[in-house]
Amino acid sequence: MIITIVSALVALVLSLLFGVVYIDFLKKKLYNQPVLEDAPETHAQKSGTPTTGGVTIILAIIFATLIALPMEQVTTPQAFLILVTLAFFTLTGFQDDMQKITKNQNKGLSPRGKLFLQVTIALLPTLYMFMNGHTQITIFGHSINLGWIYPIFSLFVITGASNAVNLTDGLDGLAASNCVLAFACCAIISLATKNYDIAIICAATAGSCLGFLYFNRHPATVFMGDTGSLALGGLLGTVAVMGKFELYLLFLGIIFIIETLSVMIQVTSFKLTGKRVFKMSPIHHHFELLGWPETKVVCVFSIITLLFSVLGTAIYLIIETGVV
Fold first, then answer.
1. How far apart are CA 191 and CA 1, in angstroms?
2. Cα dihedral sign for 6, 11, 16, 21?
3. Is the per-residue pLDDT at 39 higher than 60?
4. Is the overall model pTM greater than 0.90, yes or no?
5. Distance between CA atoms of 30 and 49, rounded to whole angstroms?
6. CB contact set of 230 (below 8 Å; sequence gap of 6+)
7. How far apart are CA 256 and CA 162, in angstroms?
8. Which residues, including other chains, have CB under 8 Å from residue 46's CB and lie 6 or more apart?
9. Could you report the per-residue pLDDT of 85-135, keeping only the tens digit for each?
10. Which of 32, 166, 176, 199 is deepest in the core (most CB within 10 A)?
């Protein structure tokens, strides 16, 4: 447990240090985030804010993890695979951000192209788990062996989580604050199941996101961009799959799920009826248009994640492990 905490603290410090240097670099290179044309009017002032800040988050996670894993003596193939998967998701997000920057519009990779890359990357942990016979899923003490269906399920979890966090990253500090809470609980679950390598990675992620919030809180001086959101979402799905608590993301990722569902509901409703259910989706924009300040939306959504994450973690510890 001590090394896990060390991992979080090291990542926190590194995230702050990398942030100072990288933001200065971004300002000089003018790597700014184009604002979505139909975004709420309050977002106009965000134009010109540097993006790809997720680079600092990911670097802090990787460095902190590589320091902590040998200290805990858990330098495992599983940990290496998780970091490789994280790196590939980061590169995909960075490519998406750079296309937006060079085109000076809020459109990067095509949806199909992005999904293809996400699924391809998600195959790494998916095949690893499948080839090692880890095809069971558990919820509330009940286990189901999905067998040959498991790869499809795993790909859905990882790519779904990647896209869900990406959709959530629309307000200052929203994705980062919710990731802090979700990954902190992932670390606790992993510690309880003695997956110390995963616990270290999750703790490092929580610490790194917390450090990033110093720069990303309202008014943000940098955005994580798809570089960060696609990677953090992919990492969340990957650790859940490899830690075997996939279905508990229903608790830990509650806000990410709600954000995704709001988009699906909005699109489906408009195509079928020509009417919109929300003023705008993802749902955080709906509350903005209702008159909520960004800070209120972020605060309320984070509280919801905190409550559900604690609940999900408690249920897991009591029912699945018997630790509590």
1. 7
2. positive
3. no
4. yes
5. 9
6. 89, 90, 92, 93, 96, 114, 118, 162, 163, 165, 166
7. 10
8. 33, 35, 220, 223
9. 999 999 999 999 988 888 776 677 888 999 999 999 999 999 999 999 999
10. 176
Q: What six digits make up the tokens of 201?
A: 């990675």
d(CA 197, CA 193): 11
pLDDT score of 29 more than 80: no
How far apart (Å, rounded) are the C-alpha atoms in residues 119 and 115?
6
Q: How far apart are CA 248 and CA 253, in angstroms?
A: 8
| Predicted local distance difference test score (pLDDT) of residue 109 | 84
Contact of 240 with 246, CB cutoff 8 Å: yes
Q: Is the peptide bond before 77 cis (omega within 30 degrees of 0)?
A: no
Residue 130 and residue 113: Cα distance in Å, rounded? Answer: 25
Q: What residues contact residue 93 under an 8 Å CB cut-off, 6+ apart?
A: 54, 166, 225, 226, 227, 228, 229, 230, 231
